[in-house]
Amino acid sequence: xGGRKSKAKGIPTGVVTLKNWxxxxxxxxxxxxxxxxxxxxxxxQLNPEPGTVTIIGGAAHKGxxxxxxxxxxxAAYRNDGVTSVLTISTDLSREQLxxxxxxxxxxxxxxxxxxxxxxxxxxxxxxxxxxxxILMYADKIECRDNIDTIEKIQTAVRELKPEIVxxxxxxxxxxxxxxxxxxxxxxxxxxELNKIAASGVAVICVSAFGKKTSASNSMPWEFGASxxxxxxxxxxxxxxPKHVHNILLKGVKDKASMxxxxxxxxxxxxxxxxxxxxxxDSTNQHPPTVERKTLRRTE
Length: 299
What we know:
Elements: H1 15-27, E1 53-58, H2 64-78, E2 85-89, H3 94-106, H4 110-114, H5 120-129, H6 131-140, E3 141-144, H7 150-160, E4 164-168, H8 182-198, E5 202-208, E6 227-233, E7 244-254, E8 262-267, E9 272-275
Parallel strand pairs: 1-5, 1-6, 2-3, 2-4, 4-5
Antiparallel strand pairs: 6-7, 7-8, 8-9
């Protein structure tokens, strides 16, 4: 007005400069995620994000299932907005998943939980001490061990309307239509899971990588996912207890942000993970002290 030219502040001119500005502007927009760890924890990089499919892959029998369950269960515990989590497990029954979670929550060795080495008094004390998390697990986590097709997953999602879906392992899920090979089948499954994610669901899949698969060489079908993390067990130190394992999580792909490696210590006796605090705390040094609770055997 009044002959003066208005000038938009902060918006550059020129096609190339404008593209860079838009890219930077959208990169800085905060993304909504379900928190599974404190903001300053490296594990916050794995906060389940609605609208995305995340793959956690690695060799078999190294703790991937325990880690993936920790991520989704902690997200359920920490977020009131997460009212339902659908856990699909073709390898473990819901009873086995429950026993693992009891061990993780309480710190009682899994072997004691599985072999019922808890007296009635000890069990009641356990429930009172960890009542909030145990009740929340029972209320929010729906474990299905009888789902093996993408069609059944879709049906369960429509029924439960979960905020988070965990598929473990993805290799045991079959497509709705016949496929010529495994890569084609898994590619179709990823596409269908992306459709589920598009409805505002955070989807996390556990994948069994082959021995020849490295952190930078995932299978072609896996690149249909939004994020890929490789899970690798490192060489133990000379005096490391057998139930303590050194784990390296390496980010391979993330459409939204850069990923930094995460060093973890996995205590397989109680199915829990802790972040290795310092780079100096290498596999050649003593691992963190892990407190193990022991229970007397009941007659």
